[in-house]
Amino acid sequence: MKRKILWAFLIIWLILTAYLLFLSNKWASAATPSYAASSAVTTDNFAELLRETLQKNPDLLLSVLRENSEAVLDIAQEGWIRPTTAREGSNQRRHKSLIAQWKAELNQPKEVDIKDRPFRGAADAPVTIVAYSDFTCPYCQQAAGTMEKVLKENQGKIKYVFKHFPLETTGVARLAAEYHVAAARQDPELAWKFYDLLFARRADVLKDGEPAIVNAAKDAGLNMKKLAADVKRKDVRAEVDADIAEGQRIGVQGTPYFLINNLVARGALSSDLFKEAINMALQAAPSGQK
Length: 290
What we know:
It is a single chain. 64% of the residues lie in helices and 9% in strands. It has 14 helices and five strands. It has helices spanning 2-30, 33-39, 46-56, 60-67, 69-78, 84-105, 138-153, 172-186, 188-200, 202-208, 210-220, 224-230, 234-250, 271-284, and strands spanning 119-121, 127-133, 158-164, 257-260, 263-266. The longest helix has 29 residues, at 2-30. Strands 1-3-2-4-5 form a five-stranded mixed β-sheet. Helix 8 packs antiparallel against helix 9, helix 8 (172-186) packs across helix 13 (234-250) and helix 9 (188-200) packs across helix 11 (210-220). By secondary structure, the protein is α+β, with helices and mostly antiparallel strands.
């Protein structure tokens, strides 16, 4: 795991280095010869220039991560730099650790508010899965696809509720969350179609911002005039704030984060791991609900 993280940061470092060199070339081409020479990137001034660049552009690192999320995701999720046997051993240790964690959590209730929230699956299902997620997060996009498969394979057993945990307090992630809340108040079924489109068009949402969100809402069949008015309502913003506060209270630090009854699942787990968690939750459910 440490090696995966180091490689992910190495990729980020290389991308930032290329960006800084690009800026340096732009400065040099527009500057006088003496200034161009002084602004060139060298081994001596690289760290200082990089620090100054990040200070002046605090959103740059997040932007780089988002624009290159697939590469980082491949490293973090697959760990291609490890030999196969080492990766298998790591997966086995993680699996064993998860099972031990879930056994300990079976009788540790998590209090979350899902009253009047739209859901997929069966209303009276013995297992409720609550997701804390971000429409701009690549791991959340992957997990949304996994959840679709899990729901199909466990019909009648699962009630799936989606909650918002945008990792930016402002910006497109927060805006997408507010639009989705407003959509859910207008029509829960269309809001789920909107949910599918937002995740399917994550790259467009990151690139184009609100226009991409609005286009997804139109294609979902929502009443756009009503949506435009509702998204500005204070109670819509308050619902997103409440989801974030609730997530922080129960320990959400990153997305996606799932509660499977009382069991905690972090990250984009495989459908097989979800199946194990669901089976454990079913076994622990009251006999009348199984």
